[in-house]
């Protein structure tokens, strides 16, 4: 097979979603609506946290960063996908593809680290309530967020630097709706064993290790709740972390199903559908999860709406 030097590869072709031609218009409108919902919903969460002083707590500090991350995470892939569906253009430049890969990995890892920080916050709030104010200090929260950003940046940069050293085949068609790292390695004509090794080790560090930390936190929470004498007290304790647990199940459930199920189950179409779940659906659902299941957010929203109605009158 004829090889091209990586510097001569000017673009990749993204095959996109496994849909029929006559369905393009419907899916374009659907994904555009989902993207706008993601952006507006997460912006609303960030606005409520900013305006309501009662939401200036560690939990909502992490949530505001998660809202920004979800907007960015969805913005990395969805606008390009919608544009391709609308214009029928499948191409993406080499530089654009590498940039998309970097930012996708960066925000995916950042999402994972922020969710883990929120799990630790819930652990301290329920298992060590008397020490909560002391432990979850402003300094610690800032440190956790900073470490999350720096670590995610380092992981994404490592993958990207290893990607740009590869050469690609003459047929550089990517069977995905975005420049997924795994899909790009399959169209490379270079030895990708080092890339695969880094994906395995970095994936364990950025995804599985945080997931295990979350499981440990919720195990401790469950043990603490079981010792609560009253059912009402147990339900109150669980309600404070129900929203976060919903996000954990949505996010990690799809990722684990995508990367850890047998390859015989994960056909290319299944991988695309699973990728849609955690890149498009999960960021869109997060505002609904945190607003509909959270009394503080609903109270802040009512306060904001009543303020707007009062000012208009």
Structure in a nutshell:
The protein has 313 residues and is mainly alpha-helical.
Properties at a glance:
313 residues; mainly alpha; three-stranded mixed sheet; two-stranded antiparallel sheet; 11 helices; 74% helix; globular
Query: Into which percentage range does the β-strand content fall?
Result: under 5%
What is the N-to-C order of secondary-structure elements (H for helix, E for strand)? EEHHEHHHEEHHHHHH
How many helical stretches? 11
Largest sheet: 3 strands, mixed
**Count of individual beta strands:** 5
For the termini, the CA-CA separation is 72 Å
Helix fraction, binned, reads over 70%
Order of strands side by side in the largest beta sheet?
3-2-5
Rg, rounded, reads 21 Å
Q: Can you give the mean pLDDT?
A: 84
**CA-based shape:** globular
- Which structural class fits the helix and strand makeup? mainly alpha
In the predicted model, the low-confidence regions spanning at least 5 consecutive residues are 1-7
């Amino acid at each position: 097979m004829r090889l091209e030097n990586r510097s001569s590869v000017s673009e990749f072709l993204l095959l996109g979603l496994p849909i029929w031609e006559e369905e393009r218009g419907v899916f374009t409108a659907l994904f555009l609506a989902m993207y706008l919902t993601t952006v507006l919903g997460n912006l609303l969460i960030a606005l409520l946290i900013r305006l309501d002083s009662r939401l200036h707590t560690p939990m909502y500090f992490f949530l505001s960063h998660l809202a920004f991350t979800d907007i960015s995470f969805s913005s990395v892939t969805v606008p390009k996908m919608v544009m391709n569906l609308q214009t029928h253009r499948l191409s993406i430049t080499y530089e654009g593809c590498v940039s998309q890969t970097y930012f996708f990995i960066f925000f995916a890892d950042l999402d994972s680290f922020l969710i883990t920080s929120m799990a630790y916050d819930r652990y301290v709030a329920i298992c060590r309530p008397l020490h909560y104010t002391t432990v979850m200090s402003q300094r610690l929260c800032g440190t956790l967020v900073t470490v999350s950003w720096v670590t995610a940046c380092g992981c994404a940069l490592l993958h990207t630097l290893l990607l740009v050293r590869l050469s690609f085949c003459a047929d550089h068609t990517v069977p995905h709706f975005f420049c997924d790292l795994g899909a790009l390695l399959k169209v490379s004509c270079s030895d990708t064993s080092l890339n695969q090794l880094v994906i395995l080790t970095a994936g364990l560090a950025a995804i599985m290790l945080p997931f295990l930390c979350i499981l440990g936190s919720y195990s401790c929470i469950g043990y603490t709740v079981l010792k609560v004498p009253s059912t009402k007290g147990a339900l109150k304790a669980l309600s404070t972390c129900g929203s976060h647990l919903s996000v954990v199940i949505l996010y990690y459930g799809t990722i684990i199903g995508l990367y850890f199920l047998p390859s015989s189950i994960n056909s290319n179409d299944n991988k695309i559908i699973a990728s849609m779940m955690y890149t498009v659906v999960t960021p869109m659902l997060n505002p609904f999860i945190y607003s509909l299941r959270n009394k503080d957010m609903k109270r802040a929203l009512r306060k904001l709406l009543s303020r707007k109605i009062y000012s208009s009158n």
